[in-house]
Design a protein that fits this description.
Uridine Diphospho-n-acetylenolpyruvylglucosamine Reductase, domain 2, Uridine Diphospho-n-acetylenolpyruvylglucosamine Reductase, domain 3, globular
Length: 135
């Protein structure tokens, strides 16, 4: 297998387009906390592990609309710290917050200790930028 670490959406698109053209499976990896085992692949497979760890920018926090725009590789604890600087709270909270990433939280619909009051991760998300296999 190959492990690739794109830094932005354009690089993800290029990787997926080439992988699709050559029928190579792609397994996204975000945080690698092991909850879903997504990156657990057979060493015999010709597979690309696509890590989101370099896509770790907090692009915008709007304290008026109470909306943050982040990349998939943002560590949850970093988002907590960033919104706190604006007097805000992001309610997703659980033990792996120092290593889990927003992309993985969304893909597993993580809940955490505040789930009853605020809902799972997807309930806290207003939208996504996605890349298809066509790039």
């Amino acid at each position: 297998f190959r492990s690739l670490r794109p830094a932005n959406t354009a690089e993800v698109a290029a990787i997926l387009k080439i992988a699709n053209e050559h029928l190579v499976p792609v397994v996204p990896q975000s945080g690698n906390t092991g909850l879903a085992g997504g990156a657990s692949i057979s060493a015999l497979q010709d597979t690309i592990i696509l890590s989101t760890d370099r896509m770790n920018r907090i692009l915008d926090i709007n304290p008026v609309s109470r909306v943050a725009k982040v990349e998939a590789g943002v560590v949850l604890a970093n988002l907590h710290a960033a919104v706190a600087q604006h007097g805000l709270t992001f309610p997703l909270l659980f033990g792996a917050r120092g290593s889990c990433m927003i992309g993985g939280n969304l893909s597993t619909n993580a809940g955490g200790s505040n789930v009853v009051r605020y809902g799972n991760t997807r309930a806290l998300c207003l939208g996504l930028e996605v890349v298809t296999p066509a790039g």
